Amino acid sequence: MIELDVFKQISAENEDKLPLLTLDEFFSGDPKEDSIAPNRWGYGRPSLAELWEMLRKVEMLPNVAWVRVALHHDTQIITDNGTEVLDLAGDSIVVCTDMGPDGLEEVVDLDWSCSDGVIRSDPALYHSRIPPIPPNHDCWEIVWD
Length: 145
Fold this sequence. Notes:
It is globular and about 45 Å long. The model has no long low-confidence stretch (mean pLDDT 95). The protein has 145 residues and is an alpha+beta fold. The two termini are 24 Å apart. The protein has one domain. The protein has helices spanning 4-13, 23-27, 48-59, 101-108, 110-113, and strands spanning 18-19, 64-71, 76-80, 83-87, 90-97, 117-121, 127-128, 138-143.
C-alpha cells in the first residue's frame, strides 16, 4: 500500500485531486475487503486478491498502457491507537488502452467482477498523478454502482 508520508506529500501538492494509485500502491497490504466496491463484497464480488490478480493480467496486455485505482473521497487519514493510518477507499479502476469499451468489458468479465460496466474517463478532471496517455488510447473506468 502507498506509504502514508508519500500520500500526504502528493495530497499537499494536489490540493483538490486525489492521486491515481498503481495496483501495488492500492492492493499490496490492504487487508480491508470493502476498500473497493464495498456494496458488492459478500454479494459475489471477488476478493481483493482475485481482483488484483485479474487487473495485473489486464495491465500486461499489449494494448493496455496502464491501469490505476481511482480513489473515493472517503479516503482519509485516521488515528488508530495514537498512530496515523491511511484508510484507502477505491472508487473505480482506470484503464488506459486502445480497446473500446466492449473489448475491455470482455477482458474484465463484468459478471465475474460484479462490475456495473465501463465508462469513458477523463482522469485529469478529478485525479492527480496521471501517467502519459499514448496516442490512439483512451481512458475507461471500471465502475461499481
